[in-house]
Amino acid sequence: MWDIEILNGHLDTTRKALEEEEAAEERRLQARAAERLHEEKAAFRKAERNRLLRIRKSMHIQKEHGLQHQKLVEDAQKNHKIAIKFLKASLGRIREQEQKEEMESREHLKRRMDAVLALKNNITANRETLRKFQAWGQTRAELAKQKAQVEKEAILAQGGDAFKQLFHQRRRQELEAQKRAFEEEQRHRKLEIVSRLWKEEAEEENRRRKQLPPAQPSDRLTLRDKTWCYVADFLEGVTTTAPSYPLDTEDLVYPEAPQLLQAISSESVQCDPGLLTNPEEEIFAEPEISGLWNEDYTPYQVPKEDVERKPVGGTKMDKDILAHTMERLRSGVVHKQVVSGREFKGRPFNSKPELIHFKDFDIGKVYKKKITLINATYTINYCKLVGVEEHLRDFIHIDFNPPGPMSAGMSCEVLVTFKPMINKDLEGNVSFLAQTGGFSVPLKCSTKKCSLSLDKDLIDFGSYVVGETASRVITLTNIGGLGTGFKFQPTSESCDLATSLKTSSFFLYEDKNLYDKVIMPSVSENMFETHESSPVETGKTESKEPEEGRHLYFRVVGVAIDVPVWVPKPNVDLKICMYDRLYQDSVLVHTRSKAALRLRFEVCKELRAHIELLPETGYIQALSSYSVQLKFLPRHSLPEDAGKYFDKETRVLEAPMTIWVADQIKPVGFIVHAIVTTSDLEISPPEVDFGYCTIYEAIKTKVTVHNHSLLPQEFGFVGLPKFVDIQPNDGFGTVLPLESLQLYVIFQPTKAKEYSFELICKSEINRQFKLSCRAVGVHPPLELSHYHIKFAATALYDTSVATLYVINSHLSMNSLTHSVPRIGSQDAAPVGPTSFEFLLPPDSPITISPSVGTVLPGKRCLVQVAFQPVLPEELVRQEALQALSKEAGAKQTRKDTVTQKKDPRRQSILPMRQQNRERQFRVSTPPTLELQKQELKASSEEFQAAQAALARAFGGKFDKFVVPCVIASGDIKDRKETEPMSFSPHNTLYLELWCPTVAPSIVVTSDKGKTVFNFGEVAVGHRGMKKVSIQNISPEDLAVEFSVLNPNGPFVLLNSFNKLLVGETQVLGLSFLPQESIQAQETLDIITKRGTLTLTLLGTGVASVIVCSIEGDVLNMGYVIARESVSSTFKLQNDSTLPIKFSMRLDSLSCTRREDRQQLPQFLVSPEQRTDVVGTQNLNGQSVFSVAPVEGIIEPGKAQDFTVTFSPDHESLYFSDRLQVVLFDKTVSHQILLKGAAREHMMFVEGGDPLDVPVESLTMIPAFDQEHREEAEELKSILVTLEYLQLDTDTPAPPATRELQVGCIRTSQLSPKKSVEFSLDSVSALQHKGFTLEPSRGFVDRGQTKTISISWMPTADFDPDYPLMVSALLVLRGDVKEIYKVLLVAQVVTRS
Asked: Is the predicted pLDDT of residue 776 greater than 90, yes or no?
């Protein structure tokens, strides 16, 4: 009891001290409350004044805005009036201009109509004039013909050869016409030459007036003087000769060629060596200014060092590259040429002409030809002359100046000079070397040769009566450069050719020096007369060249007939004939006899059953004609009867007919020609099986009608039944020879039964051909209200809907009153529910709802058919890949351009490296495109952009679909899940759909035309915005309506419009505001009368997910020396897919902190009602806790480190605050409780039961003087309560255990003590009471804590009705000495 009294004494002292402190604190709080009330009243008055000022200012601003608005409205009205005035004026001018243009267009149209009428009248007049001229020409031709006939008869009357004389007369006329044409041409050429000379004289006179005349050589004439002399002599009729020049001895060997035969051209020059002392003198005109043309003038040659110094490129690098390239070219190194990734292969230079050919040369003369070499490579190339072959070097000289680098397509000239020394053909090549390899131009030198040819190989004189004479003309032509003689002789005659050439050749000139004179052989005639009655074949031409002879052969055929009776048409052509058809013709027989003759007509015995001549016998009068009738009726036995006269393969009949003349042994014959063909028509297949066909449909099958005849045949199907139709032309038509014609047989049964019938086809000759047909009519138990649906023109990605009904009209099994559903002749279908199913074709834009269903008897089921055309996915994918490839190419080009701009020195090297770049591009592009093709999905941006581009350029198409509908008896609901319905393939209905597709009338122009708008991921509670541009591309104004979006959904249409003009573009605003974490999708339909545009809206609401590294949301900063600070870090991890904006807020810095502190202190309310988490703060007014960073953004999947700093300025155990993590300035994600304690000294003790409230006293605790700090001692109490749990069983319970923590604070201050020493006294006395304390003494280093474990086991003399109270002193020695009185209260409790 005395211990309790002592304790009560101590507690009374403490209680009095606490009461005094509370009174002082209450007085201080009242003073602070009065001061704060005064401050708040002053702040309120100030805020009220500011509010009144703001109201007054806002009213003033509003008044100014009203005045400005009124002024703007007045200005707008004035401007509107002015604009209307100008608009009216502009519209008036536009109307006047339109009227003017309309009048001009009408006048233009009238002029065009007048011009067309005038042109028509002119055409009519020209036709009349042309018709008149044709009539005049025909009249003149007839007169000339009559005149020639009269002359021929006169010559024949005189006994001469009329044909020969007429031929010579015609030949003379042709020669005279040629002579007149030549003289006219010569006259025109002379006039042209004279006009040119006068023009040159005038120009020369003008030049002489301006300058001194050039010095002319005195010893020779100019080319102009020679030309004038030649023209004057020619006009006077004097034979022109070339001017004489002094010649050398060797020049006298060759005669002087006539000047008219000298040919000077740009390709070939032939002249005498004696005349080539100065080639420019003979080829070119004399210059007006002397200088470069002087004889002693030598062309200036650029020195080699100047050539090398000449800059080719713009930089030194270009010069080095060109010099290196020229060095490699000079050394003969060949390089491959690769441009744009393509290697050049082939001939580097093309020659024009391709062959250097010197024809018909003469020995001693000089010939020149110019050839042009054209660079055929891809880029710059070089050309170097290698030379000619060894055997041509004595005769061929090449003049070639290398032109240097030649661009692609450029050309250079090469002069080839040929001086023949031997009369021999030469062949070889002129070799060149290019940068890409060598090439050669073929060269050929040909001597003069003789080339004879005949225009005819066979001369057929035909049949002539003995005594008549006939003539034919044959032409022998020499196209060579060497003349020769010829002689005609029969093949049976042999003679000496050499003698013949010497005596009969009048074409050779006696002067053997004139080898350049081309001899043109004349026209010769071969007169052929027959005096025998047998054919004659003869003819031979021999010619001889100076070295060898050759023979030309031609055949001459003639038949001599001594019969006076003849048939003008020895071949009677009956054309194409059919079997069993009669064909007639008349055969005319003429006679030259002056007496009447008896004729008998005979048909060969093989063809007497097919051909007949009527009459068989007749008389022909003198010098007259006789007509006999020919009848031809071919039978089918003609191929066997005719034998050799009929060709079975070609079906050609050649029948010889004989006319026997009385008193004459040799008959007159003629041949009947005919092509005999059949009249059969073949119908394939011969039998048609239509199969099963319902009464609601028609089956069309194709048959082919083949014409085996060589003549076209008309045909027609007659007597068709009502359920059969044949198209085209209702089964009538014409089939061409040996061709086939396709017809369509359409069968539509009228009732359910088995059909078997024949179709008859008749030809124009009344032949019949049959086609057998059979089918089975089916009456299905269901029927459709419409079997043919024609959808309106539907825009791409729009939907057209049509409705139809599936009807079950089967109510009775009585077949006598009405037709019952059945298949052919089978049993009728039962009455009851009947199921159906529409089978859609794969990948079709058709949707049928419902596609499966059941119809009760007498009922009908509504079916909706929707047509939604879309573009093929593969086509869109190809367009997207093409766009990607173009974009890749554009990027590469831009990259090259940027690189070139950055480094201008690479511009000259760029073409040389373009090859490697393009090769790398081609190698690297395909894998990228393949990867993009694999990753390209329908939801990708490239796919949607390509889809929009194709839809905008869509031209329209038309599709036709046939959808089968199968039928089965029974209800589809009664079947099991795995049991299929017993559908009959014969009870099938067919629905035909016509689906026209057109381009959309309104399109999306923004975002590459995509109709799918993905807002992406938007944080919950936030708004995403998108703008969509809609354009009207139809030719008319459209009224627009919008479908209704889900009012409770996240998508909102911000604006709308009701009309869209032609070509107008409107912008729609769409927003996405998710209220929860969802994936949302809706469609917005923009409806017009021409179609509907569907916009798909996608969006994902994402909840912000933040993970904090602090467990339990409590961050305890531990103990800190007052006026020092300690920091701790933690992390926030962003596990969402969006970047998150955060801000860190402390409750101690909250704007509502002052209002919260006006309430009662938290220690006065119950613990359950305590909500304030802000504990003791610094005395200086700053927050004891701080965090960094305060705000920022955390990227998806990233983490942000935060540093919390604890900086107390005085000693307290109840520092606390709450840290809130606020996302997007709206949502509080985490609330972290911050705790800490501060001590003035480096030691502390934790544990025990609380003895005071967690609110700091308002009174100031005086601090100890620094000099007496270490000597200060203060007794502090620690209450430790131990409760021993007593169990009901005999098992002993574990002792009651509590812990105390003794720690040493890590500090930066200098102190002689590096650790804290603690000790407990009265440990042995406590052990007698059942207490155990371990350890009883020890040391704690800085920053460490040590645990003192206290356990209690009741002793045997313990009274459980009274608690046990003992105390012990805990002494801590650090920078100061602290003594703690530990009160141990123990009691025994039982389990309730």
From this structure: yes
- Residue 560, Ramachandran bin (φ over 0: left; ψ between -120 and 50: alpha; else beta): beta
User: Rounded CA gap, 1034 and 1121, in Å?
Assistant: 82
Looking up tokens 């650790």, which residue turns up? 1315
| Residue 321, helix vs strand vs coil | helix
Radius of gyration from C-alpha coordinates of the chain: 63
CA dihedral of 499, 503, 509, 512, whole degrees rounded to 10 = 30
CA-nearest of 615, 593, 607, 609 to 659 is: 615
pLDDT given at position 330: 56
- For CA atoms 388, 390, 396, 401, give the dihedral sign: positive
Q: Which of 472, 506, 469 lies closest to 487, judged by CA?
A: 506
Amino acid 96: pLDDT: 92
- E strands within 202-313? 269-271
| 512's tokens | 């053997």
Total residue length of the chain: 1392
> Strand 768-779 to strand 724-727: parallel, antiparallel, or no bridges (unpaired)?
unpaired
User: Which residue in 1034, 1042, 1033 sits closest to 1070, CA to CA?
Assistant: 1042
Positions of E strands within 678-819:
681-684, 687-694, 699-707, 713-718, 724-727, 732-735, 740-747, 754-763, 768-779, 783-784, 788-790, 794-795, 800-807
Q: Tell me if the bond preceding 634 is cis, omega within 30° of 0.
A: no
The structure tokens 């290196």 sit at 324
Rounded Cα distance, 1268 and 1271, in Å: 5
pLDDT of 1088-1140, one tens digit each?
A: 888 888 888 999 888 878 888 888 788 888 899 888 889 999 999 888 888 88
Q: Helix (H, G, I), strand (E, B), or coil: what is residue 1321? A: coil
Angle at alpha carbon of residue 947, lines to 944 and 952, rounded to 5°: 130
| 8-state DSSP, 288 | S
Instruction: Express as a percent the part of the chain with pLDDT over 90.
Output: 21
Q: Quick check: 418 and 442 in contact, CB under 8 A?
A: no
Cβ–Cβ under 8 Å, residues 695 and 749: yes
User: What's the whole-number mean pLDDT along residues 506-521?
Assistant: 33
Find out whether 690 and 696 touch, Cβ atoms under 8 Å.
no
Q: Are 1176 and 1182 in contact (CB under 8 A)?
A: no
Alpha helices in 1212-1358 (DSSP H): 1323-1328
Burial of 1157 (0-12, 13-18, 19+ CB in 10 A): exposed
Sole residue written with tokens 């890409």 = 436
Count CB neighbours of 501 within 10 A: 18
Tokens representing residue 1129 in the block: 């870090």
Q: Which of 376, 447, 454 is nearest to 411 (CA)?
A: 376
Nearest in space to 1258 (alpha carbons), one of 1212, 1207, 1208: 1212
Q: Is the peptide bond before 685 cis (omega within 30 degrees of 0)?
A: yes
Interval 336-392: pLDDT, tens: 777 776 778 888 888 888 899 988 888 888 999 999 999 888 888 888 888 888 888
Q: Are 792 and 867 contacting, i.e. CB atoms less than 8 angstroms apart? A: no
Q: Is 1151 left (phi over 0), alpha (psi -120 to 50) or beta?
A: alpha
The CB density around residue 804, as the number of other CB atoms within 10 Å, is 18
Structure tokens at 934: 């694999």
Which residues is 560 bridged to in the sheet? 464
Angstrom distance (rounded) from CA 754 to CA 776: 4
pLDDT at 402: 85
User: H-type helices in 861-979, by residue range?
Assistant: 873-902, 910-935, 941-952
Whether cis (ω within 30° of 0) applies to the bond prior to 926 is no
Handedness of CA 1332, 1336, 1340, 1343 (dihedral sign): positive
**270: confidence class by pLDDT, cuts 50, 70, 90:** very low
Give the three-state DSSP class for 415. strand
DSSP, res 1176: B
